[in-house]
Every structure is written in C-alpha cells, then in structure tokens.
Amino acid sequence: GQQLNQSPQSMFIQEGEDVSMNCTSSSIFNTWLWYKQEPGEGPVLLIALYKAGELTSNGRLTAQFGITRKDSFLNISASIPSDVGIYFCAGELSGGSNYKLTFGKGTLLTVNP
Amino acid sequence: SQTIHQWPATLVQPVGSPLSLECTVEGTSNPNLYWYRQAAGRGLQLLFYSVGIGQISSEVPQNLSASRPQDRQFILSSKKLLLSDSGFYLCAYVAGYNEQFFGPGTRLTVL
Question: Which of B90, B92, B98 is opposite residue A92, by nearest beta carbon?
Fold first, then answer.
C-alpha cells in the first residue's frame, strides 16, 4: 500500500525557533492534511491542502502542497511551549467515496522554554 | 456544528473478555466513519471504515469487528480480547471536502 515518509521523527528546539517538517511519498495525492496530537487526545486538523503548489497559513503555521503532488511540508514559526505534540501528515488519493487517508508516522516536537 | 463522541474514555479489560467501543457523531448526516488504532509507536492504523448504515470495510484482518447500526453510530467490538488489542482507539468522520475529524479516543488496556 501507499506509504508516507515523514521527517524528522523528532525535534528538540528552543522556544522562539522556527520548525520545519515534511512528508514525501512515491504516490501522487490529491489532498494533504496536517494534524497535531497532544498526549491522550485525538489528532486535531491544522491545515488542509487541495491543490498542487498551494501554500496555506494558519496563524504561525504554514503548509505547502508540493508541485509534484508527492510531498508536503509544515513550518511553525516562533515556536512556543504549547506547540509540543506529535505532528502527522496525511494524504488522500481520492478517486472514490471512501476518503481513506494514509498517515505518516509523525514528528514528535519538544519545545524547551 | 459537528461533534464526535467516543466512550468509554479508558477501559481496562482482561484477556478473553468482550469489547464494545462506541462512537457517535452529531451535526451531520450519513458521514463516512473510521476506526483507527494507535499503538505506542505513534502510527495510526486504519481498522475499519463505513460509508453508510450496515456498510463496513475491513482494512486489517484481526480479532476485531465493526458495525454501524445507525447513521451516526459506529461500534468497534471483539468477542475475546487479546493482549495485542491494547492501544488507543480513535474514531473519525469526514466533513467538508474530505477532511477527517477525530474523536477524543479510548485508551484500552488488556491485561
């Protein structure tokens, strides 16, 4: 099946630093989604991308849908302690009504105050 | 507005006991519904999905089953739990174009 390679697996940064993580795939996706999960909770949708080349921001978060449709990145600017969590990318192939997502394995972000 | 509920929030069950986890969605009709399991290694594994009442697709053959008795209700079950069934179970629905929104999850520990 499809696989998403998400990197880095973990990041340890100082408060105020910028963060960048990305996902790549051998398959073409029609949609890219980025989620954040905090301990003991369900993932929360941060940004959804629908067009190749699309660049979307949500506050300090910026994500892009790669031109090749095989990759996406998420940037977090000026990190703060509450940014701590696991960030997941997910891609959707579409072409059907089941809207199944393929998830990356996550990037664990730790922010030191 | 749409909301998704899961219960129980936590569950500790002995090996061999039955399981029933429930997921309900409010504020939408005929949503696609999904069950995922998340092990300690962080990855999200899709277990089942449903595009309508009584329609269940299984992604991974295993000790679990799913049912959708009502439009906005999705149930995950097992007749006999295994140790390997422990994990964090997440339910999700689709809204908007094809965005999945997750419930709060159920932490299952099988002893």
Answer: B98
Residue whose C-alpha is closest to residue B66's, from B109, B29, B102, B35: B35
- pLDDT in 10s for each residue of chain A, 113 residues: 567 999 999 999 999 999 999 999 998 999 999 999 999 999 999 999 999 999 999 999 999 999 999 999 999 999 999 999 999 999 988 656 678 899 999 999 999 99
Tens of pLDDT, residues B27-75:
998 899 999 999 876 789 999 999 999 999 998 868 899 999 999 999 9
Q: Does A56 touch chain B (CB under 8 A)?
A: no
Asked if A98 has any chain B CB less than 8 Å from its own CB, the reply is yes
Kindly identify which residue of chain A lies nearest to residue B90, measuring between CA atoms: A42
Report the DSSP beta bridge partners of residue A64. Answer: A55, A73
Torsion of CA B83, A6, B92, B106, to 10 degrees: 30
How far apart are the CA of A41 and the nearest CA of chain B, in angstroms? 5
Describe the strand order of the beta sheet including B19-26 as a list of residue ranges: B3-7, B19-26, B73-78, B65-70
Q: Are the Cβ atoms of A31 and B105 closer than 8 angstroms?
A: no
How far, CA to CA in Å, does B104 sit from each of A44, A75, B3, B57? Answer: 10, 25, 10, 22
The answer to whether residues B74 and B66 touch, using CB atoms and an 8 Å cutoff, is: yes
Q: Does A42 touch chain B (CB under 8 A)?
A: yes
Report how far residue A61's alpha carbon sits from residue B91's, in angstroms, rounded to the nearest whole number.
25
